[in-house]
Write a structure and sequence with these properties.
Blueprint lengths: L1 H19 L2 H17 L6 H4 L16 H6 L5 E10 L6 E9 L2 E6 L2 E7 L5 E5 L5 E5 L10 E4 L3 H12 L5 E4 L2 E7 L2 E7 L7 E3 L5 E3 L1
Parallel strand pairs: 5-8, 10-12
Antiparallel strand pairs: 1-2, 1-7, 2-3, 3-4, 5-6, 6-7, 9-10, 11-12
Helix pairs in contact: 2-5
């Protein structure tokens, strides 16, 4: 009888908890489950991020230039965050916004859309196993795309989770060790090397590779 009552009590507590979860809290928990599946045991810093709730967005629509809002009119904006984008050739750092809608990702510079990536064509998402905030968005080889997108995000776990949830491509996220290849454009590829050091930095090495410390 005691064992039966314990099971009933646990069921009752679970039922009470589930009925008290708000819609916003449910979305938060669902995103955290995805983050766990993608990053747990794979990327440094994940355990420290668990108790930090994901925000709905890092910037609001009124923080986006009205011209950009006109260009993406008709697509509901789901998430916006500041990022640093690295040029594919010289790897120069550029301040950008990453805007995620229900069907596309946009890399935005002030009043311009620099690149649009439809989720349906997204080939993959890569990040390293270290504590850096680098994420590479892999795109198809066609005339519409300039090449893969190399970004640095302050809130890497949140940003990658939002992207793969909206794109419904959780299985395409790869956490790599050592290095990764990315497409520069016109059939050319670049190499990104991840290493450990005393100071965080991202730079173009003498051998032409993008080095992330």
């Amino acid at each position: 009888t005691s064992e039966m009552l314990q099971k009933i009590c646990v069921r009752n507590l679970v039922r009470k908890y589930c009925r008290g979860v708000t819609a916003e809290r449910k979305v938060q928990l669902q995103q955290k489950v995805v983050a766990s599946a993608v990053f747990r045991g794979k990327k440094e810093g994940y355990l420290q991020s668990i108790n930090q709730p994901f925000l709905d967005t890092r910037l609001k629509e009124n923080d986006i230039n009205p011209k950009v809002l006109q260009l993406i009119h008709g697509e509901k904006i789901k998430y916006v965050t500041p990022v640093i984008k690295y040029d594919r050739n010289g790897f120069k750092a550029r301040d950008r916004l990453l805007v995620l809608t229900q069907c596309s990702a946009y890399v935005v510079e002030m009043a311009k859309i620099k690149q649009k990536i439809d989720y349906a064509t997204l080939k993959g998402i890569s990040t390293s196993n270290l504590s850096d905030g680098i994420v590479v968005i892999h795109v198809p080889e066609d005339n519409k795309q300039k090449g893969d997108v190399v970004l640095q995000c302050e809130h890497i776990f949140e940003t990658v989770t939002k992207l793969c949830v909206l794109a419904n491509k959780q299985n395409l996220v790869k956490v790599v060790q050592g290095s990764l290849q990315f497409r520069i454009g016109s059939g050319k590829e670049g190499t990104m090397v991840f290493t450990v050091g005393q100071e965080r930095q991202v730079f173009k090495a003498k051998n032409g590779q993008l080095t992330v410390v």
